[in-house]
Design a protein that fits this description.
Distance between the termini: 30 Å
CATH class of the largest domain: Alpha Beta
Structural class: alpha/beta
CATH architecture of the largest domain: 3-Layer(aba) Sandwich
Strand content: 15-25%
CATH topology of the largest domain: Glutaredoxin
Number of domains: 2
Length: about 180
């Protein structure tokens, strides 16, 4: 969001500078200002394509043990921020389970909620899920900026966000399978 605002400001200044130079009617300055605008646009487009580093909060297992975040280093993972009351989160479970079954140990799926551990355990048992569930002390909405549930993110081996879906329950599809496969290469 900040990058978009900065690039819009750069474009506005470049346009203003170009307008000023046009009023002065200097051909050299016009060419230079067009060059400046082109460079600013290139930088903006390049920054928009740059993968973002994914932020995963400190996690606890359902046995209240700290999860070793170092175990994720160099691994492809999917992090699903969910709530036990969320209907779409329930619908997403079998999709993520199919994805886990397809890729096995080469893909790590983390189901993360900030609800009490007892609620997360009951949710896992109710839906007989084989996925790995974790508790976060960080508040998903306020601390991490999760706007809706489920928010699910594919993270590559370098810790960069490659695919993100908000309220997207269809995770077992051609696009996702290809994205995971590409991350595993």
């Amino acid at each position: 969001m900040c990058t978009k605002i900065i690039s819009i400001e750069i474009s506005i200044y470049a346009f203003g500078f170009l307008t000023y130079l046009c009023m002065v009617k200097l051909k050299t300055n016009i060419i230079l200002s067009l060059l400046l605008a082109s460079v600013a646009s290139f930088v903006f487009i390049k920054s928009m394509r740059k993968p973002m580093d994914a932020k995963i909060p400190a996690l606890k297992t359902l046995d209240s043990q700290a999860y070793d975040m170092k175990s994720l280093k160099g691994k492809v993972c999917v992090v699903s921020y969910f709530q036990t009351w969320c209907g779409d989160c329930v619908k997403e479970q079998p999709e993520l389970q199919k994805l886990q079954n397809r890729f096995g140990d080469s893909l790590t799926i983390l189901m993360v909620s900030d609800e009490p551990i007892a609620k997360i355990k009951a949710f896992k048992e109710k839906f007989q899920s084989n996925l790995s569930f974790y508790h976060s002390d960080a508040k998903l909405k306020t601390d991490l900026g999760v706007s809706a549930y489920p928010t699910t993110i594919l993270i590559d081996k370098k810790g960069r966000e490659k695919l993100k879906r908000v309220e997207g329950i269809d995770w077992y599809n051609t696009e996702t399978i290809q994205a995971v496969s590409n991350c595993l290469k």
